[in-house]
Write a sequence for this structure.
């Protein structure tokens, strides 16, 4: 049986912290579907199509990873792909409250899907999409913190 996990997020933009979580997740399951959420409530900097493209390009060489955009419920996306798990990364204790609420709510929506947490590598515990956007918008260098397709898009924003 193929074990599939969904890795959901806004990915505005994807960072090397996200990439690290996905690579750790691949040790636990056979395939990962990365769900790029439309998440209009967060008013993303990059539109959905661009966020999806950056994720796809980042994992272009990894056949066990697929990236899709979604706008509905996460548990429904999990059903669509036959995923038994939701993968999330934890950086610091401050992530816990939000993650706990989300995992508990998703479990209420579907008891059969387990949320699995992995801890991102120490080097990336301070990396967040929000800081990447802020630093890049002020001309700071984030090239060691994001995948190459994101570096290109961030440069594009300033030109
Ligand atoms: O990494 P992020 O940006 O905090 O990801 C948030 C995300 C996309 C995982 C969350 O907003 C989500 O699951 N959205 C889909 C809608 C949904 O299922 N909501 C109920 C879960 S509490």
């Amino acid at each position: 049986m193929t074990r599939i996990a969904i890795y959901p997020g806004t990915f505005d933009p994807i960072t090397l912290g996200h990439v690290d979580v996905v690579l750790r997740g691949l040790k636990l399951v056979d395939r990962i579907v990365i769900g790029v959420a439309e998440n209009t409530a967060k008013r993303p900097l990059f539109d959905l199509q661009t966020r999806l493209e950056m994720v796809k390009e980042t994992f272009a060489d990894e056949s066990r990873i697929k990236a899709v955009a979604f706008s509905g419920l996460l548990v429904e996306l999990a059903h669509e792909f036959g995923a038994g798990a939701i993968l999330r990364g934890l950086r610091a204790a401050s992530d816990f409250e939000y993650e706990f609420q989300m995992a508990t709510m998703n479990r209420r929506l579907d008891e059969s899907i387990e949320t699995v947490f992995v801890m991102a590598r120490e080097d990336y515990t301070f990396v967040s999409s929000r800081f990447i956007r802020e630093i890049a918008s002020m001309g700071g260098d984030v090239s060691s913190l994001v995948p190459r397709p994101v570096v290109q898009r961030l440069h594009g924003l300033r030109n």
